[in-house]
Amino acid sequence: MLFPVSTAPTVELPASPSTTISYGATDMECDKWDSSFQPSDWESPLKSDCSESTPIKQSYHSKLLSENKYLVFDSALKELFSMMVCSVCKKNFFDSKIEPYGAQILVTLICPNSHEYVWRSSPNINHMPSVNAMLSAAIVFSGNTYANFKNLANSMNIQCMSEQTFYKVQKNLIIPTILDAWQEESQRVHFIIKHSKRLVLAGDGRCDSPGFSAKYGAYTLLDTATGLIVDFSLVQSTDTTSSQAMEKLAFEKTLQRLLDQGIDIETIVTDRHLSISKLLTEKFSKIKHQFDIWHFSKSLVKKLTAAAKKKDCGALFSWIRSIRNHFWWCCATCGGDVQLLKEKYFSILSHVTNKHKNFTSKVYSKCAHPRLTKRQRQETIWIQKNSPAHKALTDVIFDKNLLKDMHGLTDYCHTGQLEVFHNLLLKYAPKRQHFSFDGMYARHALAVLDHNYNVKRKYAVTKSGDQRCNIVYSKRQKNWVFKLIKEKKSFSYLHNMFETVLDKQFYNIPRPSTLGQSKPKNIAPIPKPSKDVIKQLHQSRF
Fold it and tell me: Which residues share a beta bridge with 222?
């Protein structure tokens, strides 16, 4: 829709006198508007004489978000405006000027009688093109980065907002919106778990680097009953003595914050992190500590694989998967009895030699599986007792580091859902991409919102009612496996967050995050020297 410069509408908002939304012309041209011009409802969705501006504003922001957006070529725009005629003198425009303002374009048309018209590809909200704010929010909410999006835009010569504009919008509008959404979600989850009779939380840490030079460390706690992320903490390496100590500090901060809010925790499930085990024993002794079976099983498989590579121990390779499954079965059926767990676990040493009863154990004297058929006995590769392979297996089964932690496996707990979450977190905060402290925290919160909103997805079914599935090849198992397909994710929660971003711009209430204000700008222990000094000291080896 074209607006003559003398008649383009603008709306003054009573709720905030300093805030204006212009839909046709620049702010300096507002003085030349003609009050006799009556635009249509589409041209002016916000009426200047409306006393209830907030509901109309909200519905208009929702309309902006739901509208379709298109990519338009420069030549197509010029062709379109060349066919336009002035609504006053009915003559063709002889001059047009197209100026990009980030992702928005401003077109100025002049007719032979000097009537000037201005058209914008998107409305302005408080002197900012709404498309710039929405596009910046979309980049962050989708887990993307400005650098990647800019590379995509440059490859097609698509006009978009500058890097400075993006980071300004992210700091003042997007990150505060994410923090507000996470605070609401945190309160909702805390209300749910406070009514839990037996609260079991699974915890695991994650660093922002695949090596030992991590800058950030995060620790996340998940409710094993509901699958919801309860809370998380993010720390920087400068908060601790080393990057390896970040996991303990982040865990302590997260756990203490939940306890301070009156949440009664019965059990904590973690990996076998020595510092965390010591902390729970000394400071949080009332909380029962269990170990993650998946991590324990992973250590067991690693030791078995190393043992099978020894001389004359190749027969162990065919038993590794069965021993791992046997270990999971022992934990699942021990009923909280550590003695029964150990005796079931030790029985594998007899089972691999084709002996399935008359064990010298106190509470577990024979295998629980049915009697093996003659064919099963013939097809199984048994291990000779006292052979090198059997001795290597015995060393692994009676490994002191594994046995001393058996007491923490009796409740059959694992952190598999947290491993899934950490895989999702890579979408929002990849390990090889650097972010500011506020940016890293906000992206972690985004991943939590994504996880919590979609954790209850059901398995997809076909029109006939059958479960949808895929047959995929597993490189780990070296075989084809059957995998069920879940329903597609829903991201409807992002709609409210988009509206909040526009609301903050609408009312001109930017609120930069204060999360990382106490953090140093870099982690260097010495001050940054001037460029001239470094340049003089630099010597190339070539």
Answer: 202, 229
Between residues 96 and 279, the one the model is more confident about: 279
Q: Are 79 and 64 in contact (CB under 8 A)?
A: no
Element (H, E) at 443: helix 437-454
Query: 């009156």: which residue's tokens?
Result: 262
CA 47 from centroid of its chain's CA atoms: 40
Three state DSSP letters for 255-309: HHHHHHCCCCCCEEEECCCHHHHHHHHHCCCCCEEEECHHHHHHHHHHHHHHHHC
Buried b (16+ CB within 10 A) or exposed e, 48-75: eeeeebeeebeebbeebbeeeeeeeeee
The domain segmentation of the chain, as residue ranges, is: 3-125, 312-409, 458-487
Structure tokens at 493: 């929660």
Distance CA 41, CA 83 (A): 25
Give the distance, in angstroms, between the CA of residue 14 and the centroid of all CA atoms in the same chain: 39
Q: Which amino acid is at 503?
A: D
Q: What's the predicted TM-score (pTM) here?
A: 0.82
Q: Contact 52/15 with Cβ under 8 angstroms?
A: no
Predicted confidence at residue 55, as pLDDT, reads 56
pLDDT band at 163; cut points 50, 70, 90 = very high
